[in-house]
Amino acid sequence: MNNWNKRRVFVTGATGIVGSWLCRRLLDDGAYVVVLVRDFDPQSDLMRSGLVQRCNVVQGALEDYGAVERAIAGHDIDSVFHLGAQTIVGTALRSPLATFESNIRGSYHLLEACRVQRGLVQRVVVASSDKAYGESDVLPYVEDMPLQGRHPYDVSKSCTDLLALTYANTYEVPVSVARCGNIYGGGDLNWSRIVPGTILSALEGKRPVLRSDGSYTRDYIYVEDVVDAYICLAEATADGPARGQAFNFGPGRGIDVLGITNATLRAVGRDDLEPIILNEAKAEIRHQVLDSTKARTKLGWTPRFTLEEGLRRTVLWYQDFLAAR
């Protein structure tokens, strides 16, 4: 059964990697999709692929409450996916105010608009991150751990989660929170991130560069698994077991930066290239791993793609993208 045919869906962050894949999935399932777009980025897969022409576009920023509420009220939205955010840790370190404006103010604008339009909105999924937990001596993270971000990006995600659960508990807005690890896949054009940066370097015959010492541990989750997670969570949010709760989504095992770099090089077929280790990372959590037992038992979600298969698909996407430039 297709639960999304003719649903009226609002997506923030649609020009990002996950947003583009999510919009494609929703459109293919017959949904009426509205996207909030601040800047027209011709390199975004949403624009480049022509997907944007199948969407209804509201121009504006999350910091503009009027634009957010207009998108929801003007299009009779019943389902909301809030992916919009400033997502780069380094950018947050350099520009904390802009990050807080986008990630914190933008989130409470979105949630307040959903509260005001409660007669329309039946489900809201807020895309969060393992960064919301902050540094912890106890791993893997489970959902009832405290949210204790300390650095700008991490704090912005901790605040977003608390705001989402506030609107769920105090105002009974049908909100749930998805916390994912590091997301990779075709469409990510932030070359400073480890997977696309390594692929680009390898395809150009250059050694990839690591900002850290290579030992930082993360979950790496393929973008199509994340889209599955968001859809699954949304379907369980309106009157189901997910309402007012947060869920971790990850592969169940962490891998260090050097390990993901070498796995990516193997996927490209250039494992002869030795990474350059700068050891210059600042304000980043050293080890992060998510426990996804709750998502598996309550939602029936498990990742469909192994790391190797996800990287293989990702490399193919970038080969096609770079060949077309």
Secondary structure blueprint with pairings:
Blueprint: E1 8-12, H1 17-28, E2 32-37, H2 45-48, E3 56-59, H3 65-74, E4 79-82, H4 89-94, H5 96-116, E5 123-129, H6 152-171, E6 175-180, E7 182-184, H7 194-203, E8 209-210, E9 217-218, E10 220-222, H8 223-235, E11 246-249, E12 255-256, H9 257-268, E13 276-277, H10 293-299, H11 307-324
Parallel strand pairs: 1-2, 1-4, 2-3, 4-5, 5-6, 6-11, 7-10, 8-13
Antiparallel strand pairs: 9-12
Q: Could you characterize the architecture of this molecule?
A:
With 325 residues, the chain is α/β, with parallel strands linked by helices. It has eleven helices and 13 strands. It starts with 7 loop residues before the first strand and ends with a helix. The mean pLDDT is 95.
Helix/strand structural class:
alpha/beta
Cα-based radius of gyration, to the nearest Å: 19 Å
> Architecture of the largest domain, according to CATH?
3-Layer(aba) Sandwich
Helical percentage: 40-55%
Largest sheet: 7 strands, parallel
Strand order of the largest sheet: 3-2-1-4-5-6-11
- CATH class of the largest domain reads Alpha Beta
Q: Name the helix and strand elements from N-terminus to C-terminus, one letter apiece.
A: EHEHEHEHHEHEEHEEEHEEHEHH
Query: How big a fraction of the residues is strand?
Result: 15-25%
| Ends distance | 39 Å
Question: What's the count of strands?
Answer: 13
- Fold-level CATH name of the largest domain: Rossmann fold
Shape designation? globular
The helix tally amounts to 11
